[in-house]
């Protein structure tokens, strides 16, 4: 497949025909009109706005330039990861998709310039509101951000790159929306060192241990501090100083910057602090049906687009799936053999 | 500045000020009211009316509306500019202006070339209205004029004309001079000595020593000082603006550091639920202490005394009461919260709970806003940049934000620890040592002593031993504790009695043996009594020691203190998070809105200054050009810095009213426009009126007076203009060279009006200047206006054919 192609002759010349797969695996074709290249994105992937000719809905298209795939850059990894995380969230929240998370509309990785489509994010990067929000919107921002953490954790995901660039604030609707899932990882996967200094937890920056929702708690705490106070924290390598802050902010951020991830409150606890409910939409468990979908996803990728030169990192959790099955098979075999041995021994004894 | 301001936005020597002036119908840019001083002193006001190129109806309407719009201003001075050829046509207007009760003095500037007719050449033709007391008519034959020195014997020699340095016409400069009230008054007075009060004006003027580039540089520096980025933060993102609790509290009680105990109001009403629970708790603790008291002494062993059982019941009751109080406090703190303010339902609930929600002193909106305003003003006066001030406002917003009582619900356990309740509900067992060795020893000795006295001793000894056994048995029985969930099964009370019996028996035996062997000559009864008393004391000590130990283990005092602490804690939280909830939310929002306003001001200042810098570069004002004196330039910069601070204060002034009215969203309405307008007006003011004169929004200040003094010390030409110039001296005469013959060139008949800024007095030499100098409130200009009479016949004043004047127009 060669990617978006020109619309039929009857359509306006600027329209494109876009074929992609939605998170449910259904193949769709849209006629879209490119609008503009979008700046201020939470990542390096080129992004542009497309408008569906049929419905008028706007979507963001993030893509990897052909040269980006050819030179082995990490752009493709980011794109693939964002697709994976988007599918996971879509399957966890199949009914009422939470507004706090940007929604994956579709993707196509089997083209010269692989891309994904996102529902147009709401609001603006929250950095524009640093220090400016009054109490009601500030409290709504805190509650919305903590709820997004809860939603991610319920889906077994850790965002891994929370910052003012990846968190949007819709002033009119008093709504937080989290974007930029290119660095998302599953809970329990080994950490990879990444993350902008000020916003990432020490463990995340160092790349040690396993991914934990506590990583996002740290980052969210930094963002909350920044939005509440307007103080620039870009130069910090540790937690901000809460000693000279008001009681309300100290209460919200208590223990958020604990050295140990285990010492940090979870999302439900943070929501309790701000008086917001900790309810999430009903849906299947995080791993329900995921393994099969993930295997199929990986198979398609391997067949149609071999990964770049980099070998799979040792211990990658996505390659542990067959190992787990092997270990389980060995354990079952041992048990069966042991039972047989006991039965035979007893049988021999009774015969003799 | 509104149209109703009593002070206009300044001089118009080079066009109208930004935003326009007061306007009448017609050409809104030409009529104006000028003031020679700031701050609304209407006695220093000159109203200017321009009737040039206006048909009569339009002229009448303009004059009428302008004067009517200032009917409340007792200014009295009107400067009318008209065409020299239209004086007759406009005579009704001139008559109406002169006749108005609002007008005391009128100067008419008639502009135009002489009219050549068959019967002569006339500089102007008007009506006798122009020749009335308090009037002066100045004929300007040429807007640029010529340099002219009145010669001896009436001869004059025209000097080469020189063009204006900045492109403005000389007529405009003259008109600017005439709008200075002191100059206006001097010209009218001088015209009184001139035939028909008609003269041709000339002038010589000195402006201040500051070049436009210097003024621009000073303003740019002031803007940079205001808009510089905040000082580097200390590591860890902490505040660097002294936001210690004490410093924050200085702004007002809502911003931290406020002691809830300072609130004298009775927040928990007597008879309320919490008050009743505290009272119950107190009573229960008192009952416990009474029961513990009753247990002590030998009376505690009596059958009528319930003993430790009563103590246990009292402890349980105290624990239950304290537990209920604690649970109620925790429940209410978690239920109401107040972080998002109090709605009507929560207020009702608190009222029913007995919490007084009366406002705390010093927390009303006006006081909060006054505190914020004071902080901003003080910060600006101390030279803090806007970035630092808005950072401080955000810190204040952070401190004021309510935390909510839900966060304090978790602190209840700290105030009233669970162990107190636990120990009250399940106290330690009453522990009476069954058979302490020292007690047994005392029993032995006592019984032995009772048994010593011969035959009688053989009776008293055993009797005493038996009595002891009964008493000890009673004590041991009373000390048994019923089994509980945590306490082990109580020991049986009677086995230790065996040891007491052995001790008593041994004592009796020893006593009898000693009595038989030693033949101790003692009387049995007294010794037995003494022994009995001794054993009674021993019994009492044995029992009391156990009671004391048990009493100390029961946290009665701690329970009472915990109850008081709980209520005190509850009161503090109730005041801080409930009573002050709305006030703190307002204070936080107001502080943050103030920060947003200051941020917008900084952005506007920076963008306007950037644009001004670009414009200055385009116009050739590239680099600042200091005038050579560091002290003068430094003083100038200080004055301009103060003016910019006052400009910021003026720009944000309307915001405080919006905050007081709780229309916080509207606090920044129109702010950008105000800043732009004030900046434009100030730039114009600096260029046209000079920094020696304060603009409308600025303070006079000692720096400004010093600046004027320094400025005029650098003006050596001032002496030449003010002291040496006579009426015949060389100066610009607003007349064409070929029309000079229309003027009376005799120096003795010309009149000179000298003027200088009052602020320059010290520089010009106290007491050494001419007595006839007119001191002006403006600090920018000094010079002289010369009135040269016209030759007889050059001005014709006669009534037109219709001699009726319009009455009652004004």
Key structural traits:
heterodimer, A: 352 residues, alpha+beta, seven-stranded antiparallel beta sheet, three-stranded antiparallel beta sheet, 9 helices, globular, B: 810 residues, alpha/beta, twelve-stranded mixed beta sheet, two-stranded antiparallel ribbon, 25 helices, disordered N terminus, disordered C terminus
Structure characterization notes:
The complex is a heterodimer of chains A (352) and B (810). Chain A has helices spanning 66-70, 75-92, 135-154, 202-206, 213-229, 247-253, 267-273, 290-304, 320-351; strands spanning 5-6, 16-21, 27-37, 47-52, 58-63, 104-108, 115-119, 124-125, 157-158, 167-170, 175-178, 185-186. Chain A has 352 residues and is of the alpha+beta class. Chain A is globular, with a radius of gyration of 24 Å. Chain A starts with a strand and ends with a helix. The model of chain A is unreliable at 308-320 (pLDDT under 50). Chain B is α/β, with parallel strands linked by helices and 810 residues long. Chain B contains 25 helices and 16 strands. In chain B, helix 11 runs antiparallel to helix 20, helix 15 (437-451) packs antiparallel against helix 16 (454-478) and helix 20 (581-619) runs antiparallel to helix 21 (630-660). Chain B starts with 31 loop residues before the first strand and ends in a 13-residue tail after the last strand. At the A-B interface, helix 3, helix 5 and helix 6 of A face helix 11 and helix 20 of B.
Please trace the helix and strand order of chain A, writing H or E for each element.
EEEEEHHEEEHEEEEHHHHHH
**What is the β-strand count of chain A?**
12
Shape of chain B: rod-shaped
User: What is the distance, rounded to the nearest whole angstrom, between the alpha carbons of the first and last residues of chain B?
Assistant: 27 Å
Largest sheet of chain A: 7 strands, antiparallel
Question: Low-confidence stretches of chain B at least 5 residues in length (pLDDT < 50)?
Answer: 1-30, 32-42, 161-165, 232-236, 238-246, 621-626, 803-810
Biggest β-sheet of chain B, characterized?
12 strands, mixed
Largest sheet: spatial strand order of chain A: 1-2-3-4-5-7-6
Q: What proportion strand of chain B?
A: 5-15%
What's the number of helices of chain B?
A: 25
Q: Helix fraction of chain A?
A: 25-40%
| Mean model confidence by pLDDT of chain B | 80
* Structural class based on helices, strands and sheet pairing of chain A: alpha+beta
Greatest chain-chain interface? A-B, 31 and 35 residues
Number of DSSP strands of chain B? Answer: 16
């Amino acid at each position: 497949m060669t990617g978006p192609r020109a619309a039929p002759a009857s359509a306006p010349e600027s329209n494109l025909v876009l074929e992609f797969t939605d998170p449910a695996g259904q193949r769709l074709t849209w006629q879209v009109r490119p609008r503009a290249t979008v700046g201020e994105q939470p990542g390096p992937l080129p992004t542009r706005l497309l408008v569906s000719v049929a419905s008028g809905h706007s979507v963001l298209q993030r893509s990897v330039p052909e040269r980006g795939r050819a030179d082995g850059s990490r752009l493709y990894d980011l794109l693939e990861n964002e697709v994976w995380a988007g599918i996971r969230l879509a399957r966890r929240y199949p009914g009422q998709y939470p507004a706090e998370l940007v929604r994956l509309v579709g993707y196509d990785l089997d083209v010269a310039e692989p891309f994904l489509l996102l529902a147009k994010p709401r609001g603006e990067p929250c950095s524009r509101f640093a220090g400016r929000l009054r109490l009601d919107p500030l409290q709504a921002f805190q509650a919305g951000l903590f709820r997004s953490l809860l939603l991610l954790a319920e889906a077994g995901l850790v965002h891994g790159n929370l910052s003012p660039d990846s968190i949007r604030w819709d002033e009119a609707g008093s709504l937080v929306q989290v974007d930029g899932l290119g660095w998302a990882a599953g809970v329990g996967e080994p950490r990879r060192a990444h993350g902008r200094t000020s916003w990432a937890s020490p463990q995340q920056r160092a790349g040690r241990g396993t991914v934990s929702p506590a990583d996002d708690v740290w980052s969210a705490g930094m963002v909350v501090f920044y939005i509440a106070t307007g103080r620039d924290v870009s130069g910090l390598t540790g937690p901000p100083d809460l000693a000279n802050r008001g009681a309300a902010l100290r209460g919200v951020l208590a223990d958020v910057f604990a050295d140990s991830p285990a010492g940090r409150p979870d999302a439900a606890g943070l929501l309790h602090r701000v008086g917001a409910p900790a309810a999430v939409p009903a849906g299947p468990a995080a791993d329900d049906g995921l393994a099969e979908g993930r295997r199929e996803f990986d198979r398609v990728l391997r067949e149609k687009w071999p990964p770049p030169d980099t070998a799979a990192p040792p211990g990658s959790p996505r390659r542990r799936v067959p190992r787990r099955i092997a270990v389980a098979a060995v354990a079952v075999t041992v048990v069966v053999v042991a039972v047989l041995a006991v039965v035979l021994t007893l049988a021999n004894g009774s015969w003799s | 500045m509104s149209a109703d301001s009593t002070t206009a936005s300044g001089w118009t020597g080079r066009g109208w000020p930004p935003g326009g002036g007061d306007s009448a119908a017609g050409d809104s840019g030409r009529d104006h009211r000028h003031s020679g001083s700031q701050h609304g002193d209407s006695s220093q006001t000159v109203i200017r009316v321009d009737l040039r190129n206006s048909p009569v109806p339009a002229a009448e309407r303009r004059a009428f509306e302008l004067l009517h719009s200032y009917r409340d201003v007792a200014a009295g001075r009107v400067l009318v500019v008209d065409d020299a050829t239209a004086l007759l046509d406009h005579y009704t207007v001139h008559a109406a202006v002169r006749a108005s009760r609002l007008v005391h003095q009128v100067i008419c500037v008639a502009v135009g070339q002489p009219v050549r007719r068959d019967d002569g050449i006339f500089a102007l033709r008007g009506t006798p209205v122009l020749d009335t007391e308090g009037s002066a008519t100045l004929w300007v034959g040429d807007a640029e004029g010529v340099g002219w020195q009145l010669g001896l014997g009436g001869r004059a020699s025209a000097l080469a004309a020189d063009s204006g340095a900045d492109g403005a016409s000389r007529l405009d400069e003259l008109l600017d001079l005439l709008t200075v009230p002191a100059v206006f008054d001097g010209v009218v007075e001088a015209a009184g000595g001139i035939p028909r009060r008609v003269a041709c004006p000339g002038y010589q003027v000195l402006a201040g020593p500051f070049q436009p580039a210097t003024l621009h540089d000073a303003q740019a520096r002031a803007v940079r000082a205001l808009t510089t980025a905040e000082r580097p933060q200390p590591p860890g993102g902490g505040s660097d603006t002294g936001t210690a609790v004490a410093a924050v509290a200085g702004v007002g009680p809502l911003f931290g550091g406020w002691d809830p105990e300072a609130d004298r109001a009775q927040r928990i009403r007597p008879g309320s639920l919490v008050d009743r629970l505290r009272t119950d708790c107190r009573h229960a603790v008192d009952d416990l202490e009474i029961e513990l008291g009753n247990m002590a002494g030998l009376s505690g062993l009596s059958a009528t005394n319930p003993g430790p059982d009563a103590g246990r019941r009292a402890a349980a009751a105290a624990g239950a009461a304290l537990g209920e109080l604690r649970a109620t406090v925790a429940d209410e703190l978690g239920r109401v919260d107040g972080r998002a303010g109090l709605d009507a339902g929560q207020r009702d609930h608190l009222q029913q709970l007995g919490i007084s929600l009366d406002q705390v002193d010093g927390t009303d909106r006006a006081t909060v806003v006054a505190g914020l305003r004071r902080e901003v003003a003080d910060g600006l006066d101390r030279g803090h940049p806007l970035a630092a001030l808005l950072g401080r406002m955000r810190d204040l917003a952070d401190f004021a934000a309510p935390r909510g009582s839900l966060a304090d619900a978790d602190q209840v356990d700290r105030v009233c620890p669970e162990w107190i309740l636990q120990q009250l509900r399940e106290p330690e067992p009453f522990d009476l040592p069954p058979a302490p060795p020292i007690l047994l020893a005392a029993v032995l000795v006592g019984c032995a002593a009772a048994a010593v006295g011969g035959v009688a001793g053989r009776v008293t000894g055993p009797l005493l031993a038996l009595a002891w056994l009964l008493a000890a048995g009673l004590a041991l029985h009373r000390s048994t504790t019923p089994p509980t969930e945590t306490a082990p099964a109580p020991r049986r009370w009677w086995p230790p009695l065996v040891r007491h019996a052995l001790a008593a028996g041994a004592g009796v035996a020893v006593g009898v043996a000693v009595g038989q062997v030693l033949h101790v000559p003692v009387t049995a009864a007294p010794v037995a009594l003494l022994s009995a008393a001794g054993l009674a004391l021993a019994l009492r000590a044995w029992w009391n020691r156990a009671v004391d130990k048990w009493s100390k283990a029961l946290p009665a005092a701690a329970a009472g203190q915990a109850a008081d602490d709980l209520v005190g804690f509850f009161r503090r939280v109730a005041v801080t998070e409930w009573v002050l909830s709305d006030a703190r939310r307002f204070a936080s929002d107001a502080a943050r809105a103030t920060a947003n306003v200051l941020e917008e001001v900084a952005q506007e200042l920076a963008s306007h200054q950037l644009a001004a810098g670009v414009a200055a570069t385009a116009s050739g004002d590239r680099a600042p050009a200091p005038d050579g004196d560091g002290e003068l330039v430094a003083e100038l910069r200080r004055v301009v810095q103060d003016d910019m601070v006052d400009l910021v204060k003026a720009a944000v002034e309307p915001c405080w009213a919006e905050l007081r009215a709780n229309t916080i969203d509207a606090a920044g309405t129109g702010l950008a426009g105000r800043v732009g307008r004030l900046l434009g007006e100030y730039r114009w003011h600096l260029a046209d009126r000079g920094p020696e004169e304060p603009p409308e929004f600025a303070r006079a200040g000692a720096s400004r007076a010093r600046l004027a003094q320094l400025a005029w010390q650098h003006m050596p030409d001032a002496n030449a203009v003010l002291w040496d110039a006579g009426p015949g001296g060389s100066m610009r005469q607003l007349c064409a060279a070929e029309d000079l013959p229309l003027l009376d060139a005799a120096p003795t008949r010309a009149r000179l009006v000298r003027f200088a800024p009052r602020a320059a007095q010290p520089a010009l030499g106290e007491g050494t200047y001419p007595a006839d100098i007119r001191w002006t409130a403006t600090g920018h200009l000094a010079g002289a206006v010369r009135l040269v009479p016209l030759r007889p016949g050059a001005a014709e004043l006669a009534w037109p054919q219709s001699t009726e004047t319009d009455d009652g127009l004004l």
